[in-house]
Amino acid sequence: MARKGDKENGVNEYGDGVSWIRGSMLGKGSYGRVYLATLKNSTSKYSCFPSMMAVKSAEVSVSSTLQKEKEVMSNLNVSPYIINCFGEETTRGENGVMAYNLLLEYGSGGTLADRIKKSGANGLPELEVRAHTRSILRGLNHIHGNGYVHCDLKTDNILLVPNSGRGGVAEFRAKIGDFGVAKRVKLSKKRKLEELYWRGTPMYLSPEAVIDSVQEAPSDVWAVGCIVLEMLTGKPPWDGKKEEILRKIGERHELPKIPNEISKDAKSFLKGCFVRKSMFRLTSEMLLHHPFVEGLDSDADDDVEEVEDFECLNETDSMVLVAESDDEFSCDLFSDECTDESEYCCLVGLKKMQTVVRMMNWYLVQLKRRNLKW
């Protein structure tokens, strides 16, 4: 019997994997579909997979976005605050369709958007908001530290994973997912002409993205502010349709409205995110030291948590659909010629130094203005 969301007209369209069975469909988008997958032999001690996974699938001919997402996640390495990628695999459906599959960690708690909807129109408890915000910032700091910009942070792309019985203020941990439109940080003004379009969702776009089509690390921080505001209020950061929202952000120079009912620390945190000039916006690293996310329980446990290592599949050549050539992705730091890739590797370290300088400059500006404290 066909399972709901799994088969169309009794046909398993994308087929099963070598060691997993495709289950019900969890969602779909322009990139393809997401299915719940379970292991064929969940009791095996030698499996590289958890017992349940989320599998993103698309026909091979239209799978470029998923393949790019796999490349980004491989470069980011493992973090307890980012959805884990267990590998990639090609399958053949019963109708002969070849599918590309990205094997991901399953967020059994759903998305942050789902959690907000279930809470009603009043938003989440502030203590829970603080815990999720801290997890998002830690994930984002890891992404930026590895030289990437997410470009599509929103509540739909934050997944909730059980806290593994560690306790704390939230039953689930927030993890960042969906890296389909992520990009590397801008390395040099001498590089290619910047894309004249923005990536992501209008509701979470920063002013520089709308006006100048510029999306770098500060743009992600603006999106974090939108997510936090949505968690606190239970409502989107902007009212209106797409075109009206873009006009508010771009032409009208408006800021999302911060309610008076939230705490002083929450207001201060949001003001640090909603700075129209990106050069003065706080970084993810700076926000991690804000009182709004500091002082929560289980800090020590979160910092030392070990992530299960499922990298064995990524090293299995037989399951890789598209092999990355050494010429295209090599990075030789000892070469006499400074290629774009070697420049990227060098600048990742410089980004951390720039973060410290920006933090010092921000403090000096605040002290000169009004001797401002957190």
Describe what you observe in this structure:
Residues 20-293 form the Protein kinase domain. InterPro entries: Kinase-like_dom_sf, Plant_MAPKKK, Prot_kinase_dom, Protein_kinase_ATP_BS, Ser/Thr_kinase_AS. Keywords: ATP-binding, Kinase, Nucleotide-binding, Serine/threonine-protein kinase, Transferase. The structure is a single chain. By secondary structure, the protein is an alpha+beta fold. It folds into two domains: 1-106 and 306-323, Phosphorylase Kinase, domain 1, CATH 3.30.200.20; 112-292, Transferase(Phosphotransferase) domain 1 (Transferase(Phosphotransferase), domain 1, Orthogonal Bundle), CATH 1.10.510. It has helices spanning 64-76, 112-119, 126-145, 207-212, 217-233, 242-249, 264-273, 284-287, 299-304, 326-329, 340-370; strands spanning 20-29, 32-39, 52-59, 85-92, 98-105, 148-149, 158-162, 172-176, 183-184. A hairpin with a 2-residue loop joins strand 1 (20-29) and strand 2 (32-39).
Q: What is the helix content?
A: 25-40%
Strand content: 5-15%
What is the number of helical segments per DSSP (H or I, 4+ residues)?
A: 11
Largest sheet: 5 strands, antiparallel
In short:
The N terminus is likely disordered. Strands 1-2-3-5-4 form a five-stranded antiparallel beta sheet, with helices on one face. The protein has a two-stranded antiparallel ribbon with strand order 6-9. The protein has a two-stranded antiparallel sheet with strand order 7-8. It contains eleven helices and nine strands.
